[in-house]
Amino acid sequence: MANSPAQTTSSNGPEASKKACTGCSDRISDLPDHLILQILSFLSTKQAVETSVLSKRWGLLWTVVPTLHLEDSYQSIFDEQARVKFVHFVDKVLFLKKAASVEKFLLDCKSDYWCIDTWICSAMEERSLREVDISVPNYTVEIPSGLFLMKTLKILKLYDVKSLSCLISGCMNLGELRIDTKNKRKKWVHFDISTPTLDSLSLFFEGRCDLRYCDRTVGFFTPSLKYLKLSFSRRGQSDINTWICSTIQPGLQAVDIFVPRVEELKLPSALFLMKTLKILKLHGAIMVDDPVSVCLPSLKVLHLLWVNYADIDSISCFISGCLNLEELRIEAKICLQNIVNIEVSIPTLKKLSLALKYFLPDMCEEKLEINVPALNHLDFSSYGLTPSQHFIENFPCIIEANVSVPAGKRYRIQLFKALNAVKRLRLICHQDFFRLEPNSLFVNLTLLELRGGVRETLVLHFLQNSPKLETLVVHNKVLIRNGGHLWTHLEPVPTCILSSLSMACFELQGLKSELKMVEYILKNARVLRTMEIYTSKMPSDSKLCFLEKISMLPRSSENCQLSFK
After folding, report:
1. Who's near 24: CB < 8 A, 6+ residues apart?
2. Which residues make beta-bridge pairs with 329?
3. Element (H, E) at 127
4. For a pLDDT cut of 90, what percent of the chain falls above it?
5. In degrees, to the nearest 5, what angle opens at C-alpha 336 toward C-alphas 334 and 342?
6. Cβ burial 152-163 (10 Å sphere, 16+ → b, else e)
7. What is the pLDDT of the chain when averaged over all its residues?
8. In which band, very low, low, confident or very high, does the pLDDT at 209 lie, cut at 50, 70 and 90?
9. Mean pLDDT across the stretch 193-214?
């Protein structure tokens, strides 16, 4: 079978001679054109043009890439010469790509150019655009009306563009729409979106969203809408509520709303009765005040980030209407103005993230209760006073946990008892006196990472009570008492050191007591493959001597490699 042109080019000429001399092969150039074009489509047009120097074959290959990605540098904001250079570059690129079909057009300008409208029109000439992403500064560009009439357009993203005088309803096949506007003018944009095929809608308001300055009533007809994301950065409760009520459509599957913490906002009750809703993310000054009416049978993911609660039992009542929840994330500041019980009892929950900050006097009767038998992943942090009532049941299916160790001895005992089946555990210890109870056993633990103030007794406890531990990482210094004599007389050797520990990482300060800990592990770890020593906080004059001492220590494992960083 005859060689293709691509194969012939790569096997003849100066390039082939050079490869023959060096013994290297250019595997990328051996790929067929359609794969190389796909690789180039992930680069900016400027980067794609730069590949033309690689070989004759690559010379004009960039001109047939279906993506046109034009982006100037931040230098253009201050440098007139940089702006002129960018204009010349774009004009030349558009001329050379005139015969090529462009499916994806991205224009990102940090500076203002008088010819932006011309560039957009030029990209539209082929009329095969499927995705358009335009970001321009200072409300300078009026989007050409022809863009909204393109039948091939599927994805449209507009950032800081001038008022949309043309109705987006002209994009009859549009699947995804994102509009990000700062709107510094009083006269607001026209909004009348009537697109039956629209699947995803994202609206970001960094300036006014005040409807008093809008020329038309906000209107949406998007019967196919599945994903909705709204973000506001300015106040105006009634106007924000109007936007939300206008965009909430039957059939939604994912809703993500951010409201600035200026005044509380009540969401429409229809949002909490959607049988199709699978993802709900609420962030900011949103009031959860009518939990009795929540009925979200399809909801899988729920995020409640710094929202307000009208009732102490708002969270538990809200969750009771989500019978099939699999992921729950709650971040809350619990104070006298926002007292709430955190009661999570969900048999289907697989991922739980709690970040709780308590600012309450001792006499308050707040509660924390966790009962999630199917949980696989836990992120947990609790700051301030311990909740007066806390009940944490075991997590028999837990695989991974990231825990910021809370205050309160009884609180910690319950939490770590519940984690006894965890496989990967990352701890942040805020107090150097933190220790585990003697009966804390981690039968499945294979990876342990410790941060913060860590005593050697804590490290030792995990080694003695984690028979399957394979990886030990201590990011901060280990607080070793009594000169490290604990490691000198440690008998018997922990099971994991003898049979499973294959990697250990320590951040050291160069102390003799630390050397004894490292010596003990190297001497007894029979299957250890790697030990990494981080010495960034060690004085430079003593670092070399300390590392030489470690290098000379005997090792039980013949395959053990030391790495100093």
Report:
1. none
2. 303, 353
3. none
4. 31
5. 35
6. ebbbbbbbbbbb
7. 81
8. low
9. 72
